[in-house]
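The instructor's notes for this session suggest beginning with a concrete chain rather than abstract definitions. Hand out the sequence below and ask the class to guess, before any prediction is shown, which regions might be ordered.
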Amino acid sequence: MLTARQMAIALACCLALISDSAQSQRRPGQQPVGAQSAPTTQPAASDQRGTDQVPFTVKIIPGRDAEEKANKEEREHQEKAKIDEKLALETQRIADYTDRLALFTFFLFCVAVVQAGLFMWQLWIMRQSLDDTKKQIGLARDDFNSTHRPKIRIKHIWLQNDIWQGESIIVNLTCVNNGTTEAVLSEIGIKYFVVRSDRALPIEPRIPAIFNFAGQQLPCGRNWETRDIDTRRILTPEENANIQQGRSHLYCVGYVSYFDAAGRMRITGFCRVLKFPQDALAHIGNCRFRKFYDPDYEYGD
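After discussion, reveal the predicted structure:
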C-alpha cells in the first residue's frame, strides 16, 4: 500500500504536468490568466536596439553571385600577386645576369688590355732583337767585306800618240781586280804635271774625272782596259824641250774609283812618270809611263 508521502509526490507530479500542458497551449505573447500587466518601464540595455543608444542594424547576407565574384577577385588577386612575384624574380634574375655580364665584360676588357700590353712588349722585344740581329748582320757583313773585297790595281798606262808634235796627251789605262769579290767601276780621273828635275811633285787635291764607267762590273782576276783617254793636255814647246833634254819630267797622276759589295766607294790612286832611253829622242815607240812611288798619289783604299 502506498504511503502518504508517496501519494503526495504523485499528486504534485500530476499538477506540474497539467500546468505545463496549459502553458504550452497558450498563444505566444498572451499573458497568463489572472496575471497583472507589468508596469511600463524602459527596455533593458540588451533590448535597446533601434534606439539612439543602439542604432538599428541590418545584417545583409551576401548572395551566391556576390560570393562567387568575391572568390574570383580573390583568385585574380592571388594570381596577380604570383605574376608580380614572378616578374620580380625575373627582373632580379635579369639584373643579376646583367651584373655578371658587366663583370665578365670588364674582365674581358682587362684581359684584352693585358694581352695588348704583352703584344706591345713582345713587339718591342722582337724589334730590339731584330735591330740587334741587323747590327750583327751588318757587322758580319762589314767584317766579310773588309776581308772579302775587290781591289783595283793599275797595271799599265800606255802613251797612245806622239806628244812631241803639238798633239794632246792620249793614253790607254789597264786595271785589274785582284780582290776576292766583284767591283763596280765608277770613274777615272787623270792630270798631267811637268816638273823640273830638281823639284818635288806638287800636291794637287783636285783631279777632275774624265771618264765614267757607267756601273761596269769587274769580276775577280779580270783586267779592264780603257782606251784613248784624252784630257786635252798639250805640251808647250818649252815643256817639250825640257822633257827631251832631261831638265823636267812628265808625271801622270790620277785615280780609279769603284764600289764594293756593301756599296762603299773605294779609290785606287796612281802616279806615273814618263821614261825614255837616255841620249835619245823620245817618241811613241820608246816612251813608257813607269810607277813613281809617291804616297800622296800612289795608294789604295
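Then share the key points. Confidence is low (pLDDT under 50) at residues 32-40. The chain has three helices and ten strands.
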